[in-house]
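User: Quick sanity check before I run a bigger batch. Here is a single chain. Can you write out its predicted 3D structure?
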Amino acid sequence: MFYLDEWFIKRKGLALGVMWSGDSVGTSGLIFPFLLSFLVDRYGFRNTLRIWAVALFLLCLPLIYYIKPRLPPTKSKKPHVRPSYAFLKSPVFWFLQAANILTSLGFFSPSIYLPSYASSLHYSPMIGTLLIALLNSFSVIGAISLGHLSDIWHISTVVMLSTTLATIPVFLLWGLSTSLPSLIAFTLMYGIFAGGWSAIWAGMIREVQRRDKNAGFGVLMGLFSAGRGIGSVVCGPVSEMLISYGGWHYAVGGYGTEYGLVIVFTGVSAICGLVGVVARVWKSTEMGVQ
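Assistant: Done. Predicted structure follows.
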């Protein structure tokens, strides 16, 4: 991932999007849900994890040879420039990181609960697996598209587009309807506009580096990844707590099921990502003061 900074300059977002799309196609998208379902049914959970670990090792090992820096290592005696951490004092970084963390809090809920939600509506287990496959597959389009847009648009514009168009299907398609076509439409829109979020990190990094040119790409990538990781840790326990409270039994659609509060939590989490737009407003204010 860190070599992307060397190989790609003008289209770094697109390159990052293509990289993330590979994950959606392979390990978590078109192949993994069906393969995992088959292996668990046949060999059990523990053996499935062992099989998957060995498979990943064997598949990835030959690819290590091709992962190389753009320029060969030099024996120059020039002092190494250490990454700067001055960006940690910049409100712009923290607004973007806040958007990153807030959107991640509910991002994983559909991936976790769509299968059980479909089962509660009396759809077959295969339908639940299909919805996850579609959700991750549409993330391929989102990763490439949003990554490309982050190269040509200001990052706040991409954040606004992603968060707004990810929120709408949560409240309208997942929340108000229980039909299969609506759930498929939800996976399409949410997969594209929420699933491609990680691809816009390149645009966030570029915005931070405009203020701190020595801010390391790897450092910033690690921080944004860590922020996303907060969501993956918090999402599960919070969602379980919300499900235990149940939904609004007199409400329509998904809101009337036990997943009603989870749906609201997912939508609110997505729209809270608009805090990243403040980064642009703050930048304009600073320029006006100067």
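The radius of gyration is 21 Å.

User: Great, the batch can go ahead then.
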